[in-house]
Amino acid sequence: YDPRTDAFYDQALPYMAQVDKRTGHVVRRFGRLEDVFRRTRLGYSFVLPVADTADSTFVYGNGFTGRLYETAADRPGTTLRSFDVLSLNEDSLPDVPAHLLYDEDYNIYFYPYFHRCIIQTTLDSTGVNCLVRYGTPNGVFTPDARYEYVHLSRETGAVEERYMLAPENNSEKVLAYGLRRGEGEGRVFYVAKRDGQTFVKFLGPQR
């Protein structure tokens, strides 16, 4: 099917898969592509699956739409609740002229609207933790990209904490940001280089 046509979106469009660790076989596929991609005719152009599991609970989503879904770990196709980490204003999306649908740069018209993306999520006993990237949505770590930490309550779904990330010292060259799994403090970290040395540091809220 052609993602630039309606017929493409009339079929099941999963972006996640559950795999049996013993056999390597796919057990089921789930995570239907959101309706915004039908409207924009973007297909799978802006899909970055993120997921984590803890205490028999599973959370997953498409990082570009900013919504995560909670399920039982053994029933990932049945949504129990959702968490809105980012707000995608679908009314602001452009109506690209039909003659540009097959333009090789078609996706680029939507870069300003998909410039934010959850690139990692972790689940603990009380919350959902997310690492959000702001920048060109091509999956490349670039110096001008910005990163944010967001923590949501599992009980209420509300955002309880969010802050932008930055190295402790401007002389440090950040190679990557990440989230530690599990319980306790010291959730956000970054890998950096300075004076020929590579190291890991953990971050708290930026004051």
SSE arrangement:
Blueprint (H helix, E strand, L loop, with lengths): L13 E6 L6 E7 L3 H5 L8 E6 L2 E6 L4 E6 L8 E4 L31 E8 L3 E8 L11 E8 L5 E6 L8 E7 L8 E7 L2 E7 L4
Antiparallel strand pairs: 1-2, 3-4, 4-5, 5-6, 7-8, 8-9, 9-10, 11-12, 12-13
Description:
By secondary structure, the chain is mainly β. It has 1 helix and 13 strands. Strands 3-4-5-6 form a 4-stranded antiparallel beta sheet, with no helix packed on it. The protein has a 4-stranded antiparallel beta sheet with strand order 7-8-9-10, with no helix packed on it. Strands 11-12-13 form a 3-stranded antiparallel beta sheet, with no helix packed on it. A hairpin with a 4-residue loop joins strand 4 and strand 5. It starts with 13 loop residues before the first strand and ends with a strand. The relative contact order is 0.11.
In short:
The protein has one helix at residues 36-40; strands spanning 14-19, 26-32, 49-54, 57-62, 67-72, 81-84, 116-123, 127-134, 146-153, 159-164, 173-179, 188-194, 197-203. By secondary structure, it is mostly beta strands.
For this entry, give a set of tags.
2% helix; four-stranded antiparallel sheet; 207 residues; mainly beta; single chain
* Fraction of residues in helix: under 10%
Please identify the structural class as seen in this structure. Answer: mainly beta
Radius of gyration: 19 Å
**Mean pLDDT across all amino acids:** 91
* Overall outline: globular
Low-confidence stretches: none
Q: How much of the sequence is in beta strands?
A: 35-45%
User: What's the end-to-end separation, in Å?
Assistant: 50 Å
User: Could you describe the largest sheet, including whether it forms a barrel?
Assistant: 4 strands, antiparallel
Let me know the number of strands: 13
